[in-house]
């Protein structure tokens, strides 16, 4: 079974590049060659322009303006994406809802990455008591399905956090709750991936060498081990942003998500989950659904491209 | 590639062999959004449980779709004429059908009712409600096997609405109680094998379904359908899908918006069933509420700013109408009742007159340094969130700020001790659907003595309305057994309630049932929905 | 090795205590379990106050936790709900709680029946749904992951990657309603073989019908999750394929198939084994959204139904069972890991 006694490649062995390039240039070159990633990046930039630039075209007051006499109208010149259940303009709402969804995705993953990487790297590198304590914590968090933990926490925090002012907008406090609970319920898998990579890597020659040279632990972790686990972190990150945006939608669907009057793509989609609307007002769920799909998809593509680009061994030319 | 072909072949084979899912055509398929918590009537407060229990637990009398009493285990409805109601109105004597038997053939007698009474009050039983036996009833006695005598502390007009709408089989449960000291863990609660109703439980698959088959020993007619098949389908859109696909025959709590999709095929009928509920606004008149709400003219002005007709026409698709009474569409509603009209101009004038004007130019009215910003709270129901957004816009245009809050139902309705926002008064306007003790008009929601406080944490008057004359009228109607005299008192009560605007009717809120037209003779009642299930028929 | 196992199991004890205490406190403070008792309006307040005392919900949270953990024989019980503690009756007390440490998960506030029975009733349905989905997901993910690694950047890779990404990016309820609307409502209208709207395994009379009932929920769960695994497999395969020893194997003249399956796949499977090992215990948690939409009587629905009534006995029982399963599977995963990768040492 374990007949392949693989020794991990030492980084030096891949340095036989035809032209002298800095590692950063190599990464950029490889990334640009990844078509899907470039398409993803393009969409993603477009999406960011859409939700933040759109705010200059439509005011938030307009996005919240309702008129029940024009409810559930199909797309028209006046309302390019139609109107929702109380006659609000869906286009304007996808702009402000998108800000919330993107904010949730990015900030939640930031929380996830910070906690997950720190815990995984420390536990894997130091081992012993640190490992035991951190992994008990990870296990404790891991031993509860994240959606269930998310629901329990959402229920606990629901309507306990007052509204907050941020970026000139007033958010329902539920936005902060959602960001924190998504972040704090999703870092564990990443921590374990990082830890298991660190466990493998710290037995490799270059780390042993660094250690033999007497480099301090912090520098070994930062300079040698973390860069080598980047591929794993990035795969996890991309799926994480996707997961965070989708988690928000699920929690909304189950009635515990971002609270009115703040819109998010997730709660817009949830509002549309009535049989009649699903069937007769497809624009209502199509546009928020499409935006979620495109955003998540493009982030995934970008992450995929980054993974290939960052991995020194994925260069086919060598 | 070979494997792919194999997979495709298997898939095609599966499609060819696809089961047809022909539902058993002789049973009625019901889709319920929630699973009953128990089949013991002692232990539930759930509407879904009570509804299913109509199939297996017979009351003394059912309340039909016209709110008439239909004798079931009782041989006749007690009245002053037949001696069932004593001259002073405190003693109700019920004659039971001599042929009434449990589904195992054992005679059903007055002793079973005495046992039921004892079990309801037994200290070791965690029953969901002891009402009315703890508060209103002095004694329950079996004069003879067919005669049940219930003595009330004082004349109690609402006796018919909550007297023994279920009965427990003493011969089954007495031994359980003797052995365990409680009925809490009785097997019968989940598997009631001996029952008094027209159907018996065949199977209960938790989370999935219950099936019922006719009770061969039922004394009041034989069921015409082969059974009821009740499935638990939590998602509303799935319920509607299953009705349209024909997987279900009957569904409840249909959203108004889904009715066109259901009725367009012509084989599903949507029925509006009066259940006593009215969607309403509760203003907080207590100290915890906004000071502006102390002024009845401000409350009236706020209602005038609320375009209820527009909401009912556009969001409820005209299926329901704006009401003006807590007893809408009942004899207890005052005659010639009309809702407060939508009149923003008049509202502005009333607010100005009350001194609430925008003195600091921030767009919101204020008085004595207090801004007119109101906390408008409700639960998570989508329709209510929609209304909140509409009201917020309308109010803000009139210079009234609105702070929207939504709570889960278990927080929203939490008790005073648990800090429920409505109970402790952390709101200015609360919206939810409420009823009297339907079909009886009695209610303790607006009594001075029922205002929740630390001393009275179980108070039920969330608005804090406190008028001694109203309390006196409520107390008087509760003692008035004569129906016409009682109606007259209620007309006075309703007029006071309307003038006070502590509560206002947003819409008269009947239950929406969707029923496949293959099921006939379904006379759904708001009080006992499946009361005539024994007469339901299936047309071929 | 056995000392390692014993140590890990001992370490799990504080874990249980921490997890259970946190969740218990969260649940107990999240709302009022007696707010509506599932009814349309709150029950009479007097009944709520009585039930609160009778069911012990008026006790301080930590006392309730202690009862949940070790039972209530050590304390007085308010049998009659009059607010005064009674001495425990001699003739066999009612509602003696033995505590979760002695296998008594308490009674559900909703049904008044033992929580563990309620959970066990749903367990088979959930394992069926999740197991079937996992099988489908793994089969497709392996297929797609390997193909797109071996044929990196080919048209096939692009199509498979693109499709699985699109599916992965879709909110599960859109997928579920879409499948239901097309295959259960529309197919029936069009006279095609259709699937039921309500996927109820208890209604199946034979295996074929069971499979038929499972198709839509399994398809929903599978379609959206394949990408998560296939991307992972692809990453690992790529890493392995591009490594020196595969190059060595190739230079030795081994056949491509041999290289792929004997060497590359085995090494790429290592992290996958971890992932699966970590995922299996979560089958117990079910799939909340999918189960809800298809009315599948599983644990996810149980959880969300009972969360809405804050039925802490059932919720705690369910979460603790999952915790136990997780601890066991993590230990197994670690052990398998040491077997598969001799470079990792546990002492």
Protein architecture, described:
The complex is a heterotrimer of chains A (318), B (540) and C (347). By secondary structure, chain A is mostly helical. Chain A has 14 helices and two strands, in the order ααααααββαααααααα. A two-stranded antiparallel ribbon of chain A has the order 1-2. With 540 residues, chain B is an alpha+beta fold. Chain B has a domain at 278-509: Dipeptide-binding Protein, Domain 3 (Dipeptide-binding Protein, domain 3), CATH 3.10.105.10. In chain B, α8 packs antiparallel against α10 and α14 packs antiparallel against α15 (483-500). Chain B is globular and about 80 Å long. The mean pLDDT of chain B is 91. The longest helix of chain C is centred in the middle third of the chain and has 36 residues, at 115-150. Chain C is flat. The model of chain C is unreliable at 88-94 (pLDDT under 50). Chains in contact: A-B, A-C, B-C. At the B-C interface, α1, α2, α6, α12 and β17 of B face α2, α4, α6, α7 and α11 of C.
Summarize, please.
The complex is a heterotrimer of chains A (318), B (540) and C (347). Chain A is mainly α and 318 residues long.
Q: Layout of SSEs?
A:
The complex is a heterotrimer of chains A (318), B (540) and C (347).
Chain A: H1 23-33, H2 35-57, H3 60-64, H4 90-126, H5 128-142, H6 146-157, E1 164-166, E2 169-171, H7 174-184, H8 187-201, H9 205-212, H10 217-228, H11 230-253, H12 265-271, H13 275-280, H14 282-310
Antiparallel strand pairs in A: 1-2
Helix pairs in contact in A: 1-14, 2-4, 2-14, 4-5, 4-7, 4-8, 4-11, 4-14, 5-8, 6-7, 8-11, 9-10, 11-12, 11-14, 12-14
Chain B: H1 2-16, E1 27-32, H2 47-56, E2 61-63, E3 69-71, E4 91-95, H3 110-121, E5 137-144, E6 147-152, H4 159-162, H5 170-180, E7 199-205, E8 209-214, E9 227-232, H6 236-245, E10 250-252, H7 259-263, E11 268-273, E12 278-283, H8 296-304, H9 308-314, H10 344-353, E13 366-367, E14 370-371, E15 373-378, H11 382-397, E16 401-406, H12 409-412, H13 421-424, E17 429-434, H14 468-479, H15 483-500, E18 503-508, E19 511-516, E20 519-520, E21 537-538
Parallel strand pairs in B: 1-9, 1-10, 15-16, 15-17
Antiparallel strand pairs in B: 2-3, 4-6, 5-6, 7-8, 8-9, 10-19, 11-19, 12-17, 12-18, 13-14, 20-21
Chain C: H1 2-28, H2 45-54, H3 61-70, H4 115-150, H5 155-168, H6 172-189, H7 207-241, H8 244-251, H9 256-279, H10 288-293, H11 299-307, H12 312-340
Helix pairs in contact in C: 1-12, 4-5, 4-7, 4-12, 5-7, 6-7, 7-9, 9-12, 11-12
